[in-house]
Amino acid sequence: MKIAVLTGAGVSAESGIKTFRDSDGLWEGHDVMEVASPQGFAKNPALVLDFYNQRRRQLLTVQPNAAHKALVGLEKDHDVTIVTQNVDDLHERAGSSKVVHLHGELLKAQSTGDENYIVDWKEDLNLGDLCPNNHQLRPHIVWFGEMVPMLEEAAVVVAEADAIIIVGTSMQVYPAAGLIQYAKPTAKVYFVDPRPSVSETKQIKVFAEKATTGVPKVASLLSEVP
Question: What value does the CA radius of gyration of the chain take, rounded to a whole number of Å?
Answer without folding.
Answer: 18
